[in-house]
User: What shape does this take?
Amino acid sequence: MAREKGGFWVGLAASVFYPLGRLTGRRRYQGREHLPDTGGGALLVGNHVSYLDPVHTALFVHTAGRVPRFLAKDSLWKVPVLGRILRGSGQIPVYRDTADAQQSLAAGTRALADGKIVIIYPEGTITRDPDGWPMHSRTGVARMALASDVPVVPLIHWGTREVYDHYRKRFRPLPRTDMVVRAGDPVDLSAYRGRPLDSGLLREVTDLIMSRVRDLLAEVREEAAPTEFYRRSPERETG
Assistant: This one.
């Protein structure tokens, strides 16, 4: 299997993430065949249930021979050492609710055009849905998807919240849990391409993509998915 070259900083991150991935559970990665070979871009759109998700997303992509590029909140770049790793490995800061927010989407779109694997969690934070289903999501994912001629691949995580539940402040690595990461068939957006990018279209495409994510999660959980996306209370929308 040909492997995309990541350089020193990606190698350094891998040296931390692989042991951490083994520590936090049994890896059950499925659907890596939906990622394009080296040189082909793809937008991976994931649900978000735990701060462990990026660890297992990164390993899912890296074990497929590709280098993950995350859209992540800009405050992480201010953390000593971590910020240097993020910059060195080509991650993309997101400046939410600022004049620079569009720059983040533009940077992600350029990375896709350059044949990179870009990961986005459109909910913007860990889901607050009590049952762990995806929330009502931000429309930046639709803007990137429609601006790029690359596969838009739904991706789910399940099991990570059992190990680390941020809202309950609980870390429980034992007994060991299956860390499921599964990618599904790319979302067909051909009916939406070439249309004016107004708010209605962006909302419709975002909900379509996240519906595919939710359906994939329902398959893994072997449960019926809710018909509506959970909405946070207004005072928490910036969380």
Notes: The longest strand covers residues 152-158. The chain has one domain: 8-225.
